[in-house]
Amino acid sequence: MLLRRLPWLALGNLAITAYYIIKGRGRVILKAYWNGKIGLLRMMRSRKENLKQKTAPNKTILSLFEKGLFPKQLMK
Fold first, then answer.
1. 20/18 Cα distance (integer angstroms)
2. Range of the domain at 66
């Protein structure tokens, strides 16, 4: 679904950028895109580090599956 809409999203971003450049505010929108890109990269790096630290023993995970994914009250 995303791949089908990706050209429209790209075209929309390009149109917005062109609009701001025509109005003389191109620097503002380009700086906003740049800051968004940098923020996204920082967040992804931070998330990667956080996921490395979060580990659970196999015994704990298997015990959760033995009990079932859903409480029995919800399955009635």
1. 6
2. 2-75
Structure tokens at 37: 């890109």
Task: Report how far apart the first and last C-alpha atoms of the chain are (Å, whole number).
Answer: 35
* 13 pLDDT tier (thresholds 50, 70, 90): very high
Over residues 27-70, the pLDDT tens digits come to 999 999 999 999 999 999 999 998 888 788 888 877 777 766 66
b/e per residue 34-49 (b: at least 16 CB within 10 A)? eeeeeeeeeeeeeeee
Say what the pTM is.
0.56
CB 17 within 8 A of CB 30: yes
Six token digits for residue 65: 């599956």
Per the structure, the count of domains in the chain is 1
